[in-house]
Design brief:
Layout lengths: L4 E4 L5 E6 L5 H10 L2 H8 L7 H10 L2 E6 L2 E10 L5 E8 L8 H15 L4 E7 L3 H9 L4 E4 L4 E7 L4 H23 L3 E5 L8 H12 L4 E5 L5 E2 L2 E4 L11 E4 L6 H10 L4 E4 L8 H13 L2 E3 L6 E3 L6 E2 L9 E8 L2 H14 L3 E6 L8 H9 L6 E5 L6 H12 L4 E4 L5 H11 L6 H10 L3 E3 L2 H13 L8 E5 L2 H13 L9 H8 L12 E2 L6 H12 L6 E6 L19 E6 L6 E4 L2 E4 L2 H18 L14 H14 L4 E2 L2 H10 L12 E10 L3 E8 L11 E4 L4 H9 L10 H21 L3 E12 L2 E4 L2 E5 L13
Parallel strand pairs: 5-6, 9-10, 9-13, 10-12, 13-14, 14-15, 18-19, 18-20, 20-21, 21-22, 23-24, 23-25, 25-26, 26-28
Antiparallel strand pairs: 1-2, 2-3, 3-4, 4-5, 6-8, 7-8, 11-12, 16-17, 16-19, 27-28, 29-35, 30-31, 30-33, 31-32, 33-34, 33-35
Helix pairs in contact: 1-3, 8-9, 11-12, 15-19, 16-19, 20-21, 22-23
């Protein structure tokens, strides 16, 4: 079997989907012959169809797709275009032994994608009324489906547009299949450690030790041809020689030996592999490993990875080579950096927090951050997700998955490589292209992901998310027993975009009764150094009760009178409370359910991120409005005509560029108007899709920090985010009129990128904006012929 697309069935089994070719004739014919009389009747309307050879050739010529398990063909789907219009007749056959496993649905999804790329927008089929399973497959796709009733045969018509419901149902099918397949990665009933050594410094021995220390609940064995047992665990020479087999194999052998071990695992029925070995990527064994994993339908974590963890009491799995097994907790982690995973595991343990699950993806041949986002969404033992990702295989899927998870649980990400030097290091480390920092931040921000820069920041944020409620707003009061700390706290809050409201008269009167006369009653509130712990705690309680305050930062320094933080309320209330103990060496500690930081700046930065999350949860996802005055037919003819004359593509002429903008209702003028000149640039990234940048006019003279970036497709809300990201120096001064005009222009520019995939660069500079409207002073548009891609298609 040659290359194709690996994808998961409903039960988590893996198949390969690919176009059928002439050499598949015997396999297609054999599939037809294997059908029992009932299946033949339902497919061909007769139990004894003639000329199965002809029917098999028609399926191949279709065009047709096949689903292969290993080298075995288990299902086919094909269509025959009608001679006129944009419709095609579709047919489907699935081996009886694998029916009801989702083979037919998966094939139809891939056939829809193929058909759309070839200009087909409707599927039609003739189905027997008693073939309820086939009718259900069509109905459940999520595409508009009309079924003509009456008689033994039913006319089925499916509209192949891409409505929201279809994408949502497809993603849910993919989530359920992915979670089913990940069970053998994160909750296997049996594990074999291949390469467990007798030396104390052996990586395999360390992995075996952690599995034993964690108390793994399943069957455990070691594979080493030169030992009978290691650490009391029986050894066998190969995985295939195990009596009971293994669902998960952890491989830590030299790179040259990996393909042979992987093939042995496949023959032995192993379902998943954690490939710790480094040095494979970019070498001949890489291709062989990928081929074997696809052939045998195994999930693969790694290579060049640190291992996986699942601290659930039902599993207690730790296949890492950390110096100690992970502590149980409620935080899920996926990381491309093993070092980050080790550091975070240790730090969380010290803080009293722990892991629910951890997956080190390494070079990420298969299992990725997207897989874990799906797992955590349905995992009742994970409350917070942490991501360290240096590359993205499918950013559009990531965005939708992260947004869905972030609506239910906080998702925290390390920003990662930002400088050129750091990006080069990341590329060398993970063998993946670096992602521009502005693009990565835009992806995270639109998905509701909280972004931090360091492990230190992660810990501080995780402590607050774990122990405190989110603030209902950004109004923060600072209470301190040190005047300097109070001032620094107030400044840190302002620097992080937080507000410091004036305390109510009632609150001021209440705290005056608690404090000496020389105390400063305001916001920040300086209680003075001589205050007792009880009085300080009472002041904090009074301030938290103020209706004009959403959260409190209580900063204290111990004195001869006592520790002002000693009696703070220890259980989370309805408002957020963060503590600061000045001079504390640890970044963050636990203070009876309250995160306690060593510096007011750290507390203010965490509070700002909590406030941002609360605000994001309160917003919608926006809409993609239908824009009037869009002439797509004329625009498509203009683009097609240019590509006929310029097969390699190129920049449109000035007139053609202006005509293309006019098709989307964007006005071009050479006359400057309004008070504001901006630039808008939309570029189609091969991985991320459309990237829209907004900033001051003159892009070449503006630093990246002076621009705002979001990813398409734009909604009304993401267009607002793009405008709000403008630097203060170019904030719109014309109120809602300017915002409305600019929003319309941004949405129309995004429509160009979405509806005309051959448009790869739209450069509008300058853009004039006024309350009366927006127009473009100069435009450049780059056209290239590009293959259609489907970011939502189910595939690994």
């Amino acid at each position: 079997m040659t290359s194709g697309t690996s994808a998961l069935l409903a039960d988590g089994d893996m198949v390969t989907v690919r176009r059928l070719r002439a050499e598949d004739f015997e396999a297609v014919l054999d599939l037809h012959r294997r059908l029992d009389e009932r299946d033949r009747y339902l497919r061909f309307f007769t139990a004894h169809p003639g000329r199965l050879d002809l029917l098999s050739r028609l399926a191949i010529e279709g065009p047709g797709l096949g689903a292969f398990r290993g080298d075995d063909l288990i299902g086919i789907a094909h269509y025959r275009p009608w001679s006129d219009g944009d419709a095609a007749e579709v047919a489907l056959v699935v081996d009886h032994a694998v029916q009801a496993h989702g083979v037919g649905t998966l094939l139809l999804e891939h056939l829809v994608s193929l058909a759309l790329a070839q200009g087909i927008h409707r599927f039609v089929a003739l189905v027997l009324a008693e073939n309820t399973r086939m009718i259900q497959v069509f109905s459940d796709l999520g595409l508009p489906c009309v079924i003509g009733r009456g008689g033994p045969e039913l006319d089925v018509e499916v509209d192949l547009g891409e409505p929201r419901e279809y994408i949502e149902r497809l993603e849910e099918r993919e989530r359920l299949a992915d979670v089913a397949s990940l069970r053998t990665v994160l909750a296997p009933v049996s594990v074999a450690v291949v390469g467990a050594g007798r030396r104390e410094d052996s990586v395999g021995r360390a992995i075996l030790r952690n599995l034993l220390t964690a108390g793994y609940t399943g069957d455990l064995s070691a594979v080493n041809p030169n030992a009978s047992e290691i650490l009391g665990v029986p050894c066998v020479p190969t995985v295939s020689s195990l009596d009971y087999g293994a669902e998960l194999a952890v491989i830590c052998v030299p790179a040259g030996s990996v393909p042979g071990v992987v093939e042995d695992c496949g023959r032995a029925g192993v379902r998943s592999i954690v490939l710790v070995t480094a040095g494979l990527t970019g070498t001949p064994p890489e291709g062989r490993v990928r081929e074997l994993v696809a052939r045998y339908g195994m999930r693969l974590v790694g290579p060049n990875c640190f291992g996986v963890v699942n601290t659930s009491p039902a599993t207690r799995l730790d296949t890492t080579f950390a110096h100690r097994a992970a502590e149980q907790g409620r935080i899920g982690v996926v990381t491309q950096s093993g070092g980050f995973g080790i550091a975070l595991m240790d730090a969380l343990s010290e803080l009293g927090l722990g892991l629910s699950t951890l997956v080190s993806t390494g070079d990420k041949y298969d299992v990725s951050g997207n897989d874990l986002l799906r797992w955590w969404r349905g995992d009742g033992e994970t409350d917070i997700a942490v991501l360290y990702l240096e590359s993205f295989g499918n950013p559009r899927k990531f965005s939708r998955l992260a947004r869905a998870l972030a609506r239910e649980k906080p998702v925290v990400a390390i920003r990662g490589a930002a400088t050129v030097a750091a990006q080069r290091a990341a590329a060398a480390h993970t063998a993946a292209p670096a992602v521009p920092v502005a693009t990565k931040i835009a992806l995270f921000r639109q998905a509701g992901v909280i972004v931090v820069d360091t492990v230190t920041e992660v810990l501080g944020l995780l402590a607050a998310l774990s122990w405190q409620p989110l603030p209902s707003g950004k109004r923060v009061a600072v209470v301190s027993n040190a005047g300097g700390a109070a001032v620094l706290g107030a400044e840190a809050c302002a620097r992080n975009g937080l507000d410091l409201p004036v305390l109510s008269r009632r609150t001021q009167d209440a705290v005056r009764r608690l404090l000496p006369g020389h105390a400063s009653v305001g916001n920040p509130l300086d209680t003075s150094a001589a205050v007792t712990a009880g009085a300080f705690a009472a002041c904090v309680s009074e301030v938290m009760a103020d209706e004009g305050v959403d959260a409190v930062i209580a900063a204290g320094v111990p004195t001869g009178v006592g520790d002002p933080l000693a009696e703070l309320p220890g259980r989370p209330g309805s408002k957020t409370l963060l503590a600061v103990r000045l001079g504390q060496l640890a970044t963050v500690t636990a203070l009876g359910g309250i995160p306690c930081y060593g510096d007011v700046e750290e507390a203010a930065a965490v509070m700002a991120k909590l406030s941002d999350r609360a605000r994001w949860l309160g917003t919608g996802e926006g809409t993609r409005p239908d824009l009037p005055d869009v002439d797509l037919a004329t625009a498509a003819r203009l683009v097609d005509g240019y590509l006929v004359a310029h097969r390699g593509g190129g920049w449109l002429s000035r007139k053609d560029s202006e005509d293309l903008l006019a098709c989307f209702g964007i006005r071009v003028t050479l006359r400057r108007f309004g008070d504001r000149e901006l630039m808008v640039r939309a570029q189609s990234d091969e991985v991320f899709g459309p990237v829209i940048v907004l900033g001051p006019a003159g892009i070449d003279e503006v630093s990246p920090g002076g621009r705002s970036t979001v990813l398409g497709p734009l909604t009304t809300d993401s267009a607002e985010v793009l405008i709000d990201g403008l630097p203060m120096s170019v904030v719109l001064s014309g109120g809602n009129g300017e915002r409305t005009a600019l929003t319309s222009l941004l949405l129309r520019t995004d429509w160009i990128m979405e509806l005309l995939p051959e448009v790869v660069d739209v450069d509008l500079d300058p853009v004039f904006v006024s309350p009366e409207g927006a127009a473009v002073g100069s435009v450049r548009i780059l056209i290239r012929r590009r293959p259609r891609t489907d970011p939502y298609l189910r595939r690994l």
